[in-house]
Amino acid sequence: MSATEGGSVAVVGLGLMGGSLARALSDMPVGPAVLGYDVLPERSAAALRAGALDEVAADPRTIVERAHVVVYATPLPVTLDLMTRHRSRWRDDALVMDVTSLQAPVMNRAGALGIMDRWIGAHPMVGGEGSGFEAARADLFADGHVWLIGADETAADLARRAEAFWRRLGARVTWTDADSHDQRMVLASHLPQIVANLLAARLAEEGLAPSELGPGGRDMTRLAASSPEMWAPLIEVTRDRLGALLRRLARDQEKLANALDADDLAAIRTLMARTRAWREDAEWS
Questions:
Q1: pTM of the model
Q2: What residues have CB less than 8 Å from 267, skipping those under 6 apart?
Q3: Bridge partners of 35?
Q4: How far is the C-alpha of 8 from the C-alpha of 107, rounded, in Å?
């Protein structure tokens, strides 16, 4: 049975990521039954009213034990806890995934629990400015990039099912290992997040209102509106690597400030030419 044709998918957590997944699955012409749970009952009710769910559960155990595919779209600490509490409840043939942005803690827990034969780590590199189900949209994963991690070497069928699941949602899939993924995410996600927070804080200290920003300023500070509750446990895991990168960036900023003090505009032009070439050379496919 295809991961998205027939059968059922249980989505645990109906915020931006889980809510968008539920919407995308329910919009398929021939799709699965979509079962949902959120710790906030109003989110579950909103998803049901929107037609994103076929069934709402008051207890996630009642849907994860029946679903052919289970997706945990919950914060990292919650995902780790649910892995332990639900490990004996999944169907024997279930494909079980998470969508957390750090995968080493998840895959380490999967290995410790002996569930590598059914667990796939998945990190969709997608998002939005809002949070909660009200920000969810069915096309969130379309043409997005999803990192897949794991699959016991004896579980080739599980890997194929996971890849087919995300491809049917319109996503591009890349397999990697958990440590390589997390090292890359500190650079690609965590550092930009903190830099956006620092920039927004400085602008606020200087008395600038968000409404005064131009398009570039709005783009640069969009991430400053991200949820502290979501980010705190992720940054805790990567704090050493992130701290080292912030110190390197601080040294780069000091060099640039010194160049400005010395009226060395050539250094500014060189920097801008180098970063422009980096952006224009990028592979966006």
A1: 0.85
A2: 256, 259
A3: 10, 55
A4: 24
